[in-house]
UniProtKB/TrEMBL annotation:
Top-level class of the enzyme under EC nomenclature: oxidoreductase
Catalytic activity: (E)-cinnamyl alcohol + NADP(+) = (E)-cinnamaldehyde + NADPH + H(+)
E.C. no: 1.1.1.195
Record text on subunit structure and interactions: Homodimer.
Gene3D superfamilies in the cross-refs: Medium-chain alcohol dehydrogenases, catalytic domain, NAD(P)-binding Rossmann-like Domain
Pfam families tied to this protein: ADH_N, ADH_zinc_N
The protein's required cofactors: Zn(2+)
CDD domains: CAD1
Name of the molecule in the record: cinnamyl-alcohol dehydrogenase
InterPro entries cross-referenced by the UniProt entry: ADH-like_C (IPR013149), ADH-like_N (IPR013154), ADH_Zn_CS (IPR002328), CAD-like (IPR047109), ER (IPR020843), GroES-like_sf (IPR011032), NAD(P)-bd_dom_sf (IPR036291)
Pathway: Aromatic compound metabolism; phenylpropanoid biosynthesis
Organism: Gossypium raimondii (Peruvian cotton)
Species classification: Eukaryota, Viridiplantae, Streptophyta, Embryophyta, Tracheophyta
Length: 450
C-alpha cells in the first residue's frame, strides 16, 4: 500500500473501527490505528510508538509537520484530536481562575455541579459572565459519548451569550458591559486557506468550544458555567435590544442554516427553497429563508406540523414527504433544499424535487451512510453538498441580520437544575424548538455549600 493510499484509507479505517470504542476493545482500536500510522505511513514520531497517544496525528500536526506527507493526514487529525484526554493537560493544573458549572463525568450523560479552572484574561481575550446557554443536540451526543470522542469531565455548551466583565489590552471590538456570544469554536490555525478566507470552521486545526484541545494543550470547557473566556476573534457582538435568551441558539443553529442559504445562493428573492425537518435547525431555517426573500416549503414526514409551519413560522407551503401524490406534484419545482434531518432517510425523492441545476444541502448528519444513485445527480446536473456552521465573519453577519429582521429562535427557558430532565426530553424530541438554560439567574443556586 502506498503512502497516498494509506492516507486515504485512514477515514475509512476510523469509521469501520469507531464502534470498538464503546467496548473493552478500545485499546485494540488504538493499537491498530497506531500500527497503521507507524508502519504504513512510516512515521517515526514517538507518539505512534506508545499506547497512550490519544491525540495521534494531531500531535504530529502541531509539532512535527515535516514528518507527515500529504494534507489528507493533517485533515484527518481533526477526527482524532478529541479521541481522549490522556495526553491533554488538566486545566486545573494549568489555569488559575476558579469557575463553576455543570459537567458530565462519564458516558451516562448525567450532568452535575462541577468546579474547574479557566485561564487568566490574555491580552487578546474577552472574559464575560455567562447569562444564557442553549442546549444543542450535539451536547446530548457528546455527554453520552455517542460519537466516541468525549473527554471527561465535560462541560458542554456552545451557544453562549453573556456580558463582558474584562478585556485584554489588545482587544478592540468589545468593551466591558457589552453583550457578546461564543459559538461552536474558540480557535484555529489562522494560516491555512480556510482561515485566510474567513472559514475558520473548516480549518484542520479547528478548536471546539468544548471537548477540544486548546493551544496550550488543555481541554476546552463550554458554556454550562458562570463565566467564559475566549480570544476576541471568536467573540460575536450581540446587537443592542436583541433578546439574549433567544439569540443563544442562533450561534449554532442559526449560522448552520444561514451559511448555506447565502453561500449556495438559495436565500434570494424568487428562489423556491425546501426545508426538510421542522426542529431546532429547520424552524430557524424557515425564518432566515423568508427574511432573505425566498419562497419556502417545509418538507416533513409529519402532517400535523403543517399548521405550525404555515401559521406560526410563515412558510408558504407544506409538503408531506410520505405522500406520493404530493411528492409527484412537486417534482422539479425547487431551486434548492436545506436538509436538517439527522436521522437516516431517503435522499432520492428530495433530489427529484429539484429543478435542473438544483442544490440539495445537508446540514443534518445521519450516522448511517446515505444512498445516492448517481443518475439522480447526473440528470439535471444537480448538486449535493454539505455545510457546517460558518466562519466568524459570517456568524457576526448572521447575528446582525437576525437582529435587523427580528429573527429569534423559538425557545423554552429552563433553570440549571432542570438540565438532566431537558436532556431526557431532547432525546424524545419533546421541545419546541430549543432549550436555553438561564445561567445568570439559576446556576449559582446549584452550587454546593462549602
Amino acid at each position: 500500500m502506498s503512502k497516498k493510499e494509506s492516507l486515504l484509507e485512514l477515514p475509512r479505517f476510523y469509521n469501520n473501527q469507531r464502534k470498538m470504542q464503546y467496548s473493552n476493545k478500545k485499546s485494540n482500536f488504538i493499537d491498530s490505528l497506531c500500527f497503521l500510522v507507524r508502519n504504513e505511513l512510516r512515521c517515526d514520531v514517538m507518539c505512534h510508538h506508545t499506547k497512550s497517544f490519544k491525540r495521534v496525528l494531531s500531535i504530529c500536526y502541531y509539532h512535527y509537520p515535516s514528518k507527515h506527507p500529504g494534507t489528507e493526514a493533517l485533515t484527518f487529525s481533526l477526527w482524532l484530536t478529541n479521541l481522549g484526554s490522556e495526553m491533554a493537560k488538566s486545566p486545573e493544573e494549568e489555569h488559575p481562575v476558579k469557575t463553576f458549572g455543570w459537567a458530565a463525568t462519564d458516558p451516562s450523560g448525567h450532568l452535575s455541579p462541577f468546579t474547574f479552572s479557566r485561564r487568566v484574561t490574555g491580552e487578546e481575550d474577552v472574559r464575560f459572565k455567562v447569562l444564557y446557554c442553549g442546549i444543542c443536540h450535539s451536547d446530548l451526543h457528546s455527554i453520552k459519548n455517542e460519537w466516541g470522542s468525549s473527554n471527561y469531565p465535560m462541560v458542554p455548551g456552545h451557544e453562549i451569550v453573556g456580558e463582558v466583565t474584562e478585556v485584554g489590552s489588545k482587544v478592540e471590538k468589545v468593551k466591558v458591559g457589552d453583550k457578546v456570544g461564543v459559538g461552536c469554536m474558540v480557535g484555529a490555525c489562522h494560516s491555512c486557506d480556510s482561515c485566510a478566507n474567513d472559514l475558520e470552521n473548516y480549518c484542520p486545526k479547528l478548536i471546539l468550544t468544548y471537548n477540544g484541545i486548546y493551544y496550550d494543550g488543555t481541554i476546552t470547557y463550554g458554556g454550562y458555567s458562570d463565566s467564559m473566556v475566549a480570544n476576541e476573534r471568536y467573540v460575536v457582538r450581540i446587537p443592542d435590544g436583541m433578546p439574549l435568551d433567544s439569540a443563544a441558539p442562533l450561534l449554532c443553529a442559526g449560522i448552520t442554516v444561514y451559511s448555506p442559504l447565502k453561500y449556495f445562493g438559495l436565500g434570494e428573492p424568487g428562489k423556491h427553497i425546501g426545508i426538510v425537518g421542522l426542529g431546532g435547525l429547520g424552524h430557524v431555517a424557515v425564518k432566515f429563508a423568508k427574511a432573505l426573500g425566498s419562497k419556502v416549503t417545509v418538507i416533513s414526514t409529519s402532517p400535523n406540523k403543517k399548521a405550525e409551519a404555515l401559521e406560526h413560522l410563515g412558510a408558504d407551503s407544506f409538503l408531506v414527504s410520505r405522500d406520493q401524490d404530493e411528492l409527484q406534484a412537486a417534482m422539479g419545482t425547487f431551486d434548492g433544499i436545506i436538509d436538517t434531518v439527522s436521522a437516516t432517510h431517503p435522499i432520492m425523492p428530495l433530489l427529484g424535487l429539484l429543478k435542473s441545476h438544483g442544490k440539495l444541502i445537508m446540514v443534518g448528519a445521519p450516522y448511517e451512510p446515505l444512498e445516492v444513485p448517481a443518475f439522480s445527480l447526473i440528470i439535471g446536473r444537480k448538486t449535493m453538498a454539505g455545510s457546517g456552521i460558518g466562519g466568524m465573519k459570517e456568524t457576526q453577519e448572521m447575528i446582525d441580520f437576525a437582529a435587523k429582521h427580528n429573527i429569534k429562535a423559538d425557545i423554552e427557558v429552563i433553570s440549571m437544575d432542570y438540565v438532566n430532565k431537558a436532556m431526557e426530553r431532547l432525546e424524545q424530541a419533546d421541545v419546541r424548538y430549543r432549550f436555553v438554560i438561564d445561567i445568570g439567574n439559576t446556576l449559582a443556586a446549584t452550587k454546593p455549600s462549602s
